[in-house]
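Closing statement on the adenosine-5'-diphosphate sub-project.
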Amino acid sequence: MIILVLNSGSSSIKYKLFDIKEGAEKLLDKGLVERIGEKIPSHRDAIKIILDKAGSGIGAVGHRVVHGGDRFSKSVLIDNKVIKAIEDFTELAPLHNPPSLLVINESRKILADIQHVAVFDTAFYCGMPDYAYFYGIPYKFYEKYKIRKYGFHGTSHRYVSEQAAGVLKRPLAELKLITCHLGNGCSITAVKNGKAIDTSMGFTPLEGVMMGTRSGDIDPAIIPYVMEKEKMNAAEVIEMLNKESGLLGVSGLTNDMRELLKEKAKNKRAKLALDIFVYRIKKYIGSYTAVMSGCDAVVFTGGIGENNPGIIEEICKGVIPEGAKTLMIPTDEELMIARDTYRIATTLH
Ligand code: ADP
């Protein structure tokens, strides 16, 4: 079955086209349509460009959706109820869910006769224990506003967990894995017996380890303090924590790991940024080893995790339990989406 996977942002759509059969997967094409709203007038136009390239014969479409809240623990066939639920979670993902909704609605109109499947970044975390996803704040904030840890990058963590089980030649259901997605955004997940039991990102992708431009964990009291001192409003502080912090904020140079590694020897702040980055990941690996009472393998993926054995060696030094393996596995969120889409579309036929 030919599966088209769409990963939509506010001004771009990434796509991959796969031919999926039982036991055989082939990537046929991939690409990126950028500058929607400028060179390309609308998301609908972008979809048409992709469909022209993809040709006829598409059997199903898989859509990446960032936020499925606590509602979707699995990928689902899209119908009007699912669309309504994704709309309901827009408030929790104001930058990410709207372009996905737009693309889902438009592509369902253009490709009305085939199945469309939604694959959620949050779904992998729906089974986390309550004590892992609750924050220590008054319970009413959970009841009134659904404030809890949701976790992100779930499709990537699920994909590399499955790949790791293959590499280790052991069933995923009996493995304790720590998966580290280290790209511009970074997140760490504890995967016990195939299920995510904790993850570093939280209510939003801002929590957790330090990232390219995001601060990761900070004392929340810093926020009102900075607001008062710098005469900033809440939106400005959040923007600062999302876009001007992390490796970029500490080094004052760049959020690009490759550049920082070049600067490390001669620039103190580049070295400090790298030291914080490594130290914080170590702390998460240590704590997830503790909550799982052990760890069989630590898996690295994402631009940094797939390409830089040096930094991985530093992260792992002294923190990986004896006997545990270190694996570098390229992620492929689109392939995971295509697999889910194939499974759902063929089960329903
Ligand atoms: P995104 O999260 O935007 O998808 P990527 O997964 O592509 O980002 O990761 C981007 C990061 O990966 C950048 O910090 C980049 O410097 C880093 N990176 C890419 N290649 C290498 C490499 N060979 N060594 C170290 N870092 C790398």
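The chain has two domains: 2-120, 170-328. With this model delivered, the sub-project is considered complete and its resources will be redirected to Aim 3.
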